[in-house]
Design a protein that fits this description.
It is a single chain. By secondary structure, the protein is of the alpha+beta class. Helices cover 18% and strands 34% of the residues. Strands 2, 3, 5, 6, 9 and 10 form a six-stranded mixed beta sheet that branches. A four-stranded antiparallel beta sheet has the order 1-4-8-7, with no helix packed on it. It has a four-stranded antiparallel beta sheet with strand order 11-16-14-15. A hairpin with a 5-residue loop joins strand 12 and strand 13 (248-255). The chain is globular, with a radius of gyration of 20 Å.
Length: 330
């Protein structure tokens, strides 16, 4: 069975499983996509056989279901009593057993880079918007050890806001001033509904960067170039960049040639094409304000308040899996 056919069967199997889920799961609620939450980064990877070490550790504990339910880390009866319903060590799962894999203690959860002390606009992608009582943001204290559990006593509140309007694309944008930090930290958010006692919980793994050159750079880290599969020759990988209102800003298409179709080769090829041709995007690693393509671990950087997605279209010879679509970042 070729890879395209396997992908087709897996997609069909996922659709059947989704149809079998309880109706209530359809009304899941969302997660942060800027910076990308711990669960969202894993969701963007291979859900059934994660290659990322931390996501794989979560999968080993809880199976793959948490990745499919990425938008439902909740407690139904929180009623703003967050510390009462979510105990120490279970903050990232929101004490919801489905997501217990997110509480695995590791120092290699994928991070997003943020700048210490800067103004930052968080973006929450709401699969089901709700009336809001408040959004509250915390960050781990300076000196916190990533090889330890996240506890309430480790957190310091730095931002709280009430209801914010829903923007295009079902996004909530919440602007806060980040605290002074350096190195790896967890930003934690609670979202309390005003029309219900239900609340939602999010862990965002970040790396605070105080580089002046990067601070002055026009490029904002917005997500990762998700690398899961080898692809056949002729596969089209297209980066789509969207304006804040959801309209298309630009599209950069790369058609993979012989010798550049493996997971070890095509990410750099796509990054180099984007960096040479795109106006609003770069792919790679930011160094001294410049974004340079790498062989692995490439990140997507955007200018302005934009978002992105990757479309992967297989050649006709590889069908019945006509295409793949992955929405990667906001």
């Amino acid at each position: 069975m070729n890879r395209a056919h396997r992908f087709y069967l897996l997609s069909a199997a996922v659709a059947v499983c989704a149809a079998a889920l309880p109706t209530s799961s359809v009304f899941a609620h969302g997660t942060f996509v800027n910076p990308q939450s711990r669960i969202y980064k894993c969701y963007l990877g291979n859900k059934e056989n994660p290659s990322d070490p931390a996501c794989r550790a979560a999968w080993a504990v809880a199976g793959s279901q948490l990745f499919y339910d990425w938008n439902g880390i909740n407690q139904a009866n929180a009623n703003s009593n967050h510390q009462a319903v979510v105990p120490d060590g279970k903050l990232c799962s929101g004490n919801n057993p489905t997501f217990r894999g997110l509480d695995v203690i590791r120092s290699d959860w994928q991070t997003s880079t943020v700048r210490s002390g800067s103004s930052y606009t968080f973006t929450f992608y709401a699969t089901a918007p709700h009336a809001t009582k408040d959004w509250t943001f915390y960050v781990t204290r300076q000196g916190w050890n990533p090889n330890s559990a996240v506890r309430w006593s480790d957190l310091q509140q730095f931002c709280k806001t009430g209801s914010v309007p829903l923007s295009a694309g079902n996004n909530y944008h919440i602007t806060c001033t980040l605290p002074s930090r350096s190195g790896r930290h967890v930003i934690y958010n609670t979202w309390q509904r005003s029309d219900s006692t239900e609340a939602f919980y999010t862990c965002m793994d970040v790396n605070f960067n105080a580089s002046l050159a990067d601070a002055k750079s026009p490029w904002r880290e917005s997500g990762n170039l998700n690398v899961v599969n080898d692809y056949p020759v002729g596969t089209s990988v297209t980066l789509r960049v969207f304006n804040a209102d959801g309209s298309d800003a630009e599209k950069i298409e790369t058609v993979l040639r012989a010798g550049e179709t493996s997971v070890a080769d095509w990410p750099r090829r796509v990054a180099e094409q984007v960096n040479a041709r795109a106006k609003f995007a770069r792919i790679g690693e930011q160094r001294s304000g410049q974004v340079l393509a790498k062989d692995a671990g490439n990140r997507v950087f955007l200018s302005g308040n934009r978002s992105f997605a990757f479309d992967v279209r297989l050649p006709d010879s590889a069908k019945p899996a006509a295409s793949e679509h992955a929405h990667h970042g906001h």
